[in-house]
Amino acid sequence: MSSPLSREDVAHLASLARISLSDAELDRLGAELPAILDHVAAVQGVVESAGADVTPMSHPVPITNVFRADVPTPGLSRDDALAGAPAAEEDRFLVPKILGEEA
């Protein structure tokens, strides 16, 4: 594992990322970031050693688009839509009043 980063280095990285860190977080991340960077380097080493015959992927299972074509279809008629309503008035849904008379 690499040596811990200084508080100034961690504070500089935090300012580049536009995040604010407390003094305790600066100290904790100074010790943790080298281990994280070592893990990233290990993954990068695997990627580099895989060679050109391994295709990079973002998901282990192939994903296909499942969208249907955007084709207009007829909707419900007004009578069919209002048929399931508990109450209707003047070809509209009738709902309980939730506001006072000031509206």
Automatic annotation (TrEMBL):
Its EC number is 6.3.5.-. It is an enzyme of class 6 (ligase). The keyword Transferase does not apply. Keywords: ATP-binding, Ligase, Nucleotide-binding, Protein biosynthesis. Gene3D superfamilies: Glu-tRNAGln amidotransferase C subunit, N-terminal domain (1.10.20.60). It catalyses: L-aspartyl-tRNA(Asn) + L-glutamine + ATP + H2O = L-asparaginyl-tRNA(Asn) + L-glutamate + ADP + phosphate + 2 H(+); L-glutamyl-tRNA(Gln) + L-glutamine + ATP + H2O = L-glutaminyl-tRNA(Gln) + L-glutamate + ADP + phosphate + H(+). It comes from the Bacteria. Heterotrimer of A, B and C subunits. NCBIfam families: gatC (TIGR00135). PANTHER family: GLUTAMYL-TRNA(GLN) AMIDOTRANSFERASE SUBUNIT C, MITOCHONDRIAL. Belongs to the GatC family. Allows the formation of correctly charged Asn-tRNA(Asn) or Gln-tRNA(Gln) through the transamidation of misacylated Asp-tRNA(Asn) or Glu-tRNA(Gln) in organisms which lack either or both of asparaginyl-tRNA or glutaminyl-tRNA synthetases. The reaction takes place in the presence of glutamine and ATP through an activated phospho-Asp-tRNA(Asn) or phospho-Glu-tRNA(Gln). This is Aspartyl/glutamyl-tRNA(Asn/Gln) amidotransferase subunit C.
